[in-house]
Amino acid sequence: MYEVVVEVVEVRGRCAADYKQGDKFTIKGFYIEPEKENSRICIHALTAMISLLSPFMHGVSAKLLGIGDKEDEGYLQCPDPGKPYTCGGTVIFKVKRLREIR
User: Mean pLDDT across the stretch 55-66?
Assistant: First the structure.
């Protein structure tokens, strides 16, 4: 299993979790570590990511998963479509695989 950093690269509209470009969290095994104190992890974004994030954390390439052009870096998106459909907005996340953890 690999350590993976999830970083906000773009916010389209207003994010209900108040994500800003550059916000990050790290996934190490079964644990999520926010980059800074009081960071929020959006449950909607996380549930949308998990089906692709899990194989990515286990070494499946981002290219094979269809989430990027590189082996160790891909992109995932929050499911909120934003205006005119909701009052929120969508967030684009970069996922980057770092080191293997045991």
Answer: 95
